[in-house]
Amino acid sequence: MSFFIPGLGSMYGSRPWKGLLVLAVYLTAWVLLFANWYSVWTVLAIPGSVVWGMWSGHSDAVRWNRQRGIES
């Protein structure tokens, strides 16, 4: 899920604030990029937030499964 929309996996995995933070970083970086306020940090924040969102979504899903006795 987070591959398509950064943070969505965490939002679905019962961590909505964490998912919203990932999404906010991603969208803010795009807004800054289009507003010509880009820098190295802005350019790195876009793929960084995508990777962060995917990693976070996966770890939240594993945590959710372990709490319910499901091995994944």
Tell me what the structure shows.
The chain is mainly alpha-helical and about 70 residues long. Helix 2 (about 15-35) runs antiparallel to helix 3 (about 40-65). The protein has one domain (about 10-65). It contains 3 helices and no strands. The chain is elongated, with a radius of gyration of 14 Å. The model has no long low-confidence stretch (mean pLDDT about 90). The two termini are about 15 Å apart. About 70% of the residues lie in helices and about 0% in strands.
What's the layout of helices and strands?
Layout: H1 8-12, H2 16-34, H3 40-67
Helix pairs in contact: 2-3
Radius of gyration: 14 Å
Percent helix range: over 70%
Q: Helix-strand pattern, N to C?
A: HHH
Approximately what portion of the residues adopt beta-strand conformation? under 5%
Round the mean pLDDT to the nearest integer and report it: 90
Q: Outline, from the CA principal axes?
A: elongated
Uncertain runs with pLDDT below 50, 5 residues or more?
none
Structural class: mainly alpha
Q: How many beta-strand segments?
A: 0
The N- to C-terminal Cα distance equals 17 Å
The main β sheet shows up as: none
Note the total helix count: 3
- The count of domains is 1
